[in-house]
Each structure stands twice: as structure tokens, then as C-alpha cells.
């Protein structure tokens, strides 16, 4: 019987995940289906229950349900616990297992696709919402020096405080960034959605620096700013999307798909 999977979000109609998983399944010869399901904003838990009743094997979870998914799990992987959010569920033996592949997806894109070495580099993470929280521990664990900038400084401070005892992560106001420079600047704000640019100063990029926007599907003001400011590499988040999907696929199917041809096809 064909194993069924899905991605749950709201809205979800523009999701590329069904196409990505279809390409992975074809490439690896896995007998599975994967569809996009929009859950009502107040109906996430009920939707998960329905999928389990119908025999689905697992699902991905996206905005705005990653925190609810976290709360729903019977068992959490350490990286889901770090992120306090879940983007991948597996339904096994009557239990809901949860993990988070967003951070690993970002690291894989930086390391494999963009060939950017992270160890001992200085990074600036823009934003302190759900998207930032999902990647902050993996970035720290990759050996980066990390600053977190956010308009609401309390939110950035809360994220930075998670590292007390593990190392030093600084929360910065945007005004404090003047005169600072980084090897890696990651935009994890939702500013691109409204075609806005966070209030960034000139001179933020060190020679050879990489500017990364976690959004995909369009050239954001942040990407345009980075090009103008002389960042050596400017990337959107499509590679992260494909890599986090590959990690989920591996957890479900025990087969690691080759992401390169899938990413190349999506870029066309
Ligand atoms: P997500 O899950 O996408 O991170 P979120 O939790 O609502 O969404 O967080 C949105 C993030 O984008 C926040 O860090 C927000 O900054 P504030 O907390 O200071 O509001 C940030 N953000 C949104 N629009 C922005 C803009 N135009 N400039 C700078 N930051 C912006």
C-alpha cells in the first residue's frame, strides 16, 4: 500500500513541498504520496488526529502550526526541544514523534550547496521570531560567533539568554550594528513578505561574506541591499527548503535523496 504523507499549514496552497517530495520519491523509488493540507487556524490538532485515523505515516508542519505541533508530540528529538518548535512529525506505534529539520536544512544548504564553511566565522541573525528560533541552536553548534538583532530587543535577549552557560550570544539593537561587520548575515525576519528591509547600516559585510535570506521565491529588499553592499554571495532560502525536506524524507523513509537535481529543477 502507498504510504501517505502531507504538509499542514495555513495558508498552504503555494507550498513547494508536495513537488519536492514527489521528486524525492521518484528518484529513490519510494511508494508514497505527499499532499498539501490546509488546517483551519483553530483545527490543527483535529487535522492531525484525522491523518492518524486515516493511517498517514507522518507530516510536515509549517506556519503557523510549528509550536502547536511541538506541544502535541509524545516524543521530541533534541533539536525540536532546542527550537521549541516542530516541523516534522512521524506517526509510529500509536505515538506522535516530533523533530525539527529547519536548522539542519539551513546548515546543509550553507555547507553543501553554497560551500560556505561556518566554523569560527562571525554571524548575524536578523529576527527573533519562530524562523530565527528554529535555526539559532544549530548555528551556534556549528561554531559560529553569533549576534541576534531584532527591533523588539526583549525577544532577541530571550533567545540569546538560552546560551547562558554554553557560550556568548549577543542580542543587538539595529542601531548597535553600525561599525560591526560579519562573515554571514541571515535574514530570519518576515520583512521580505511586506517588501521591507530591516534598518541595517552600511558596511555590514566582511570580505567574502555570505548574505542569506530564509525566504524564497523572490528577490527580497534584504537580498538587493546585500548585493549593493558588496556581499560576495547572496542566496535565498530555496536550498534550505529542499534540504529540510530531504532530512524529513530520510527520517521517514531511511533513504537520503540527492537534493542537487531537485534544487536545480526548482530554480528553473
Ligand atoms: P516568523 O515565524 O516568520 O519568524 P514571527 O514569529 O512573527 O514570524 O517573527 C517575525 C520576525 O520578523 C520578528 O523578529 C520581527 O521583528 P519584531 O519582533 O521586532 O517585530 C521581524 N520583522 C518583521 N518585519 C520586520 C521589518 N520590516 N523589519 C525588521 N524586522 C521585521
What features would you describe in this structure?
The protein has 268 residues and is of the alpha/beta class. The chain has two domains: 3-101 and 240-258, 3-Layer(aba) Sandwich (Rossmann fold); 103-238, Rossmann fold (3-Layer(aba) Sandwich), CATH 3.40.50. Helices cover 38% and strands 23% of the residues. The chain has ten helices and twelve strands. The structure holds 2'-monophosphoadenosine-5'-diphosphate. The site of 2'-monophosphoadenosine-5'-diphosphate has 15 residues, from helix 6.
Question: What is the secondary structure topology, with strand pairs?
Answer:
Blueprint: E1 3-9, H1 17-28, E2 32-38, H2 44-53, E3 58-61, H3 66-72, E4 75-76, H4 78-83, E5 88-92, E6 95-99, H5 102-113, E7 122-126, H6 130-141, E8 145-149, H7 153-161, E9 169-172, E10 182-187, E11 205-213, H8 221-228, E12 233-235, H9 238-253, H10 259-267
Parallel strand pairs: 1-2, 1-3, 4-6, 7-8, 7-10, 8-9, 10-11, 11-12
Antiparallel strand pairs: 3-5, 5-6
Helix pairs in contact: 1-9, 5-6, 5-9, 9-10
Bound molecules: 2'-monophosphoadenosine-5'-diphosphate (ATR).
Highlighted features:
alpha/beta; 2 domains; 12 strands; binds 2'-monophosphoadenosine-5'-diphosphate; Rossmann fold; globular; 6-stranded mixed beta sheet; 268 residues
